[in-house]
């Protein structure tokens, strides 16, 4: 594995374990919203079925995932979809996930050491995510309490953009990473697998596809890397997609945990 000048990484399912936060949060939000819309109890989503469908639709924005999952769930009962406002549904997601995040968000094993390793070896870092600034600050603040940002996402008098700026500067200082940036869904017009997020990340770090490496747990991460021309694309299996899926999507290597990448980036 060639040591890159910059590592371009997905967030959820790759660096932070938010799988159950996403699943439980979207399920609880959808069920509560549908109840208020008058959907009968017997027709409300059942968690096991909802989770299986969400695993098929996740990878783009949370708003799109909510809509796609419910459209699959009610494909045989489309009348339940007629009066749904998916923007309104999405607006109710953050309060639900904020409440349960401390229980469900975890750092993947080796995350802190991995970030320190990037800093010691002078490797730039970008996160490209389908999530928002709020999600990044909340999830990483909880997952990495050593940064002292665990409650930053709850501060009412600071904008999400300013919170993200604080997060970026703290990561650089705490782990010694030479350059660090976060590209969220708020920064782009096209979601994965479109290359826009990866291309913007490389532009901010002043790197090229030849000296970059994409890391992700989902097929759309690999596809985004291909579409951006990044030659090295590492899939990681502790998130949403398994090894065969990542390989089929174009991963040049597949690992099972962050410590493997730490060892290889020597």
Order of helices and strands: EEHHHHHEHEHHEHEHEHEH
Q: How would the global form be characterised?
A: globular
The rounded Rg comes to 18 Å
Q: Which strand order does the major sheet show?
A: 5-4-1-6-7-8
Mean pLDDT: 97
| Residues in helix, % | 40-55%
Identify the CATH architecture of the largest domain: 3-Layer(aba) Sandwich
Largest sheet entry = 6 strands, parallel
What is the CATH superfamily of the largest domain? Answer: HAD superfamily/HAD-like
CATH topology of the largest domain: the name is: Rossmann fold
Distance between the termini: 9 Å
Which structural class do the helices and strands define?
alpha/beta
- The CATH class of the largest domain, by name, is Alpha Beta
% residues in beta strands: 5-15%
What's the total number of strands? Answer: 8
Could you name the ranges where pLDDT drops below 50 across 5 or more consecutive residues? none
Helices, strands, pairings?
Layout: E1 6-9, E2 16-17, H1 19-36, H2 47-57, H3 62-73, H4 86-91, H5 93-104, E3 106-107, H6 111-120, E4 124-128, H7 133-143, H8 160-175, E5 180-183, H9 196-205, E6 212-216, H10 219-227, E7 232-236, H11 243-248, E8 253-255, H12 258-264
Word description of this protein:
The protein has helices spanning 19-36, 47-57, 62-73, 86-91, 93-104, 111-120, 133-143, 160-175, 196-205, 219-227, 243-248, 258-264; strands at residues 6-9, 16-17, 106-107, 124-128, 180-183, 212-216, 232-236, 253-255. The protein has 266 residues and is of the alpha/beta class. It has 2 domains: 6-18 and 105-264, Rossmann fold; 20-100. The strands form 2 sheets. Strands 5-4-1-6-7-8 form a 6-stranded parallel β-sheet, sandwiched between helices. The termini are close together. The mean pLDDT is 97.
